[in-house]
Each structure stands twice: as C-alpha cells, then as structure tokens.
Amino acid sequence: MSTARADSGKEAYLSAFARLQKGSAAAKGSWTRPLRAAAIARFDEVGFPTMQQEEWRKTSIAPILQVEFQPQPAYTANGFTAKALERYTFEPWECTHLVFVNGHYAPELSRLRPLPEGAVVEPLAQALEARRDEIEPHLARHADDRSHAFAALNTAFMQDGMYVRVADGVSIEEPLHLLFISAPGGAPVVSYPRNLIVAGKGSRLSVVESYVGPHHDLYFTDAVTEIVAGEDARVDHYRLQRESEKAFHVALLQADLGRYARLGSWNISFGGGLVRTDLNALLKEEGGEVRLDGLYITGGSQHVDNHTLIDHAAPGCTSHELYKGVLDDRSRGVFDGRIIVRKDAQKSDAHQTNKNLLVSEDALVDSTPRLQILADDVKCTHGATIGQIDEDAMFYLRTRAISEAAARNLLIQAFVSEVLHGMRIDPIRAGLECLLFTRLRKGHGAGVEP
Amino acid sequence: MMLQIRNLHARAGGKEILRGIDLDVEAGEVHAIMGPNGSGKSTLANVLAGRESVEVTKGQVLYLGKDLLAMPPEERAWEGLFLAFQYPVEIPGVSTLYLLKAGLNAIHRHRGLPEVDAMEFLALIKEKMRLVDIDQSFLNRAVNEGFSGGEKKRNEVLQMAVLDPKLAVLDETDSGLDIDALRVVANGVNGLRSPERSMLVITHYQRLLNYVVPDRVHVLYNGRIVRSGDKDLALALEKKGYAWIEQEARGVAPGAPPGP
Hints:
The complex is a heterodimer of chains A (450) and B (260). With 450 residues, chain A is α/β, with parallel strands linked by helices. Chain A contains eleven helices and 21 strands. In chain A, α3 runs antiparallel to α8 (149-157), α9 (391-399) packs across α10 and α10 (404-420) packs antiparallel against α11 (426-441). Chain A starts with a helix and ends in a 9-residue tail after the last helix. With 260 residues, chain B is an alpha/beta fold. Chain B has a domain at 3-87 and 166-249: P-loop containing nucleotide triphosphate hydrolases (Rossmann fold). Chain B has nine helices and twelve strands. The A-B interface holds A 390-393, 395-404, 406-407, 410-411, 413-415, 417-418 and B 49-53, 72-74, 76-78, 82-83, 85, 88-89, 91-94, 99-100, 102-104, 106-107, 110, 142, 159, 163.
C-alpha cells in the first residue's frame, strides 16, 4: 500500500467527520462532541495501519481505502422487512432482538421483552444524553483507540448500538440479541455500531451480536463493543459475523473484568470478504476468568484475521482460549493470540489452543501465539496445529457406507463441534450447526453462506 | 459366487505386495486367510475395501458378478461389503450412533429401501449390542476415541452387525485381544454366520479359528496363496509354524528334492 493512498484514504474520513460536525445539530450540543473530536484527532495522528506494523503484518486494509464509503445519516429500513429478519433471528428464539439497519436503530423491526428491575437495555444513541452520568465514565474509556485507528474512527463517528446496564445482583435470564444489518441502497455504506455493556456486582447476562448483510453487497462495518464486568459478574458474549462475502468488517471488543468476574466469549466468523477482529480481555483484578472460543470458516477469497489479547494483570486469574478455523478455496486465515502475564500476576493459569483445518490446497493460515510471561509462578500452555482432512478417517467412514462428500463434511462438522458444543444458548448453537450443515451439503465447500 | 479373485497384483508403498492371488468364495462360506507378517494379508483386505493408497496393477475381482475394483469404497459398502479394520480409526466429534445411522441409511437409499428413523434405529442397535456385549454409553461416545483395543474390536463387530453385510472381511480382528475378549468377538462373528453371508477371516494365529471354524483355510506367502485346505491346515500351521510353508514355497522343504 502506498503512503499516498493511505493519506488520501485518511483525508476522506477526516472531511466526512468535518461535514458531520457541521451538519448534525444533535452532535453540536452533545457531551460526546469533544470525545468525538479527540478521537478523530487520534485517528489523524496514527493514520490507517500498514503492513509494516507488527499488529497488521498479515492483513492489508488497502481494499477498504479503495472504496468511498458514506455513513447513512439517519434511519431508513431500506426495504428491509420483519419477514426478511427471520433468517437471522434463530426462530423460534424467544428473546429481545434489537435491530439496527445501516447503523441506526430500527424500532419497528425490534422486539423488546420484559426485563427484570435494575436492568436497562436501550439504544445507545437514545441513552447517551438521558443517561450521561452513567455512560460517560465508561464510554470510550475501556477500548484503547490510541493504537487502533478503526476504533478511533468508530468513536468519532459512532452512531448507535446497545447500551446495557445491569444493577448489582440482577440477572437477565434471556439473552439480548443485537442484530446489525447492512442494507445498502445505492452508494457503499459504512456503519459504526457501538455497544456498551456494564454489568454490576454479581450480575449475569448474555449478549449476542450478529452482523449480517445481503449476499454480494459491498459495505463496511466498523464496530466497537466495550464490556465492563464488575465483581463476580458473569457475562456471556457471542459475536456472529455473517456479513456479505464482499463486505469489510473491522471490530474491536474490549472486556474489563473485576474481581472474580467471568467472561465467556464466542467469536464466530462465517462471512465477510476482509475481516479483522481484535478481542481483548483485561483481567485487572484477582480471580477473574475468561474463556475465549472462536471459529472461523472461510472460502472463496475471504481473508479473516482474529487477534486476541488476554492481559493477566492481577494474580490468580484463569484464561482458556480455543480458536478453530476451517479454510477452503483460496481463503486466508490469521490467528494472533497474545497473552501477557504481568509481573504481579502470580498463580495465573492460561491455556491457548489454535487448530486449523485446510480443506483446499490453496488455502492458507498464519497462526502466531505470543506469550509474554513476566511472573514466575504461573501455569501457561499454548499449542497450534495446521492440518488437512485425515485420509485414514475418510477411508474408515467410506467403508461405513458414507459417501466421500458426506464423509468430508462430517469430519469438518466434527472438527468444529468442539467450539459449537460449548455454546450456552441452544437456539444459537442449533442454528449455527444447521447453517454449517446446509452450507456444506450444498457443496459450497466451507465458503460463505449460500 | 460371492467373490472371485483372479490373478490379483497390487503395489503399496512402492513395493509389489500381492503377486497373483486367486480365490473363490461361495455364499455362506467362511474362509480363513493365514500367513506370516508381510505376506500381504492386510493389503488384500485393503484392496477389497478400496483403499486408494494400494494400487492394483493386474487382475480382477468379481463381487456378486460385479467389477469390485471399479467401485469407490462407499459403493462397495452399499453393495454389502464390510471391512473390520485391524487398527480401527479414532474419529473425534462423530458418535458411533451417528456414524452407524448415517451408514445404514446410505445403504437403504442405495437399495431403494425406506430410511430408518431414530426410534427404529435405536431398537435395532440395542438388539445388535447384545451380540458383542457393548454398553450403551459407547454409542454416544466419539468413534473409537479412547477405546481400549478390545473395545475397538467389539465396536467393529457391532458395526458389522448393524450394517448387515453380504461379505465381511475381518482383518486381524483377533490381534491384541485377551482370551475373554477373543471369545466375545468370536461369539459375535459366529452369531452373524448365515447361508447368505460370506466371511474372509484374516489372521496371523490359529487361535481365533478354534472359535470361528472356517470352511476353507488359505495360506498367503509372499503375495500368493501357496496352500489351501480345510480347518486342519490351520492346526498343522499352529504345530509346525510358518517356516514349514516358507521352505515349501521356496521349494526347499526338508527331504524334498532341490527345485529346478
């Protein structure tokens, strides 16, 4: 990527920001105005990442800069109907669905269900001013956008998303589903979903973020989610990336865990043309526990890059990480798993596994575990494998009357089941299994959704 | 005729292993194939089941009158051929129950029979499990994963019982079994003998043949069947060892005149 193009790409976003600041009356009076201005200044300073930077060595974002994306100024359904939603809502799944189209909340497509007392679930744009006191201490305070240009852009341009606050001791039993739909009408659209989840002491909740878009559409999603889990809180977070195979998807998830807080994270990537996800967990107080599970299934010319960072900053914390990838056709996968165990984080227990299955000669995957252990009394393991379909297993299944294609699909399903079976929401697990099964059966290889 | 092998030659790992096998098996017959290590027993089993890494260089195999070698492995299974593996493969993430139901229904589809539903299948498999004394918990575990040697072999016999083949090839199903496990496996095999089913029992030792009594015994040496007989041949082998056959095959049997 040439410097000139990176600069011109940057200019387009800077002038879009200037127009936004001028044009939006709401933005003028908002307390987020200086927050946004500071973010765009940081973006201007760091610029878009290049492949010379360690964190972006395997992923070129140049294709994103070749398209002039425009944010959609306000909500329109763009012809999207409740009927069309069904394929994304894992029917019959009884839960709250908050739907966003091109970055804006879609009230008539959303389905809200009763919440326990002490729980607040609102579109962020709506909550920003009304709940400034509770939001301001957290918003953009956890996600680090100094080194992540796309996170800075998100803060500068943030449109809408979900704000959840759960009071101490309160549990939301039903999962909350956030469905971000891109439905471009004409010009390529960029959307900036932004979510903030604040879980009080001893609270519990599950959040599912889905990112979807129609087949063949070109658009760009730049998403940021911040999770703050208080003492003893338990948060399950699912990220289901099912974007169009032409779409660009860049996202950052930052979770900060308090004492004995627990986070379960499932990061599932099926779609997208160029995808980069940064998933960071900070174990900042004693006894925190994270489980990061991930699955990426790629085909065609998809490029999916997962970066994870688990920061053991306090003693006695546990992290278990399992990322699996199935790569077909000419697709490319990147897994970069960083674990830091700080000097005082004694009795840390960290396990990382990354397994990849290449089902085509032309698929490629890079797996990089990066461990920085600064404490001495820790348990830390990691392992990475890259392999092909086991020919002995294939032959065995075929002698049991299973056809070659079915045997191959069965082995792929078996490979991913380790991740899917750990999911704690049945309709999601069943829905994803079904999605995968259909896709494999239709002979799309491991490629994008049919 | 169930199986007719003519002048079969095959290569594996860059070496010629089978050098002209001829064998006829009638419906309902049990034939034992014996032979020392490296004689080509497992290669023969793999050729019959269709393993791609074994290359047939000459000869033909007719199975129920059809050209067996032209069929991919799954089609052989649909047509009623079964191989019990010497080293059953572990398949993490796939349960035995799922595997067998998928396999059985693939066979039914091929034969134009209705597929079995979950309830029918469970009833069927429970009946077959008695044959090999397998606990039901095995069915939900991943295929062969973490199974002991004996459990793996019993699982092979269970699979054979469920898929109900016309021709079963048992590749050293007795190897690595203690006497109790051997009895269980042998009982399972005997329970599946029928006038419609033929079996090819491949074994290194005569021991299994005390329980599964064969109609014919063939001795494989250096890629050829060098001697055939009834069950007494197996007993003779047990007594005299394979050296006897080896010497005879080389034409230097004690007391015999030197070869030409």
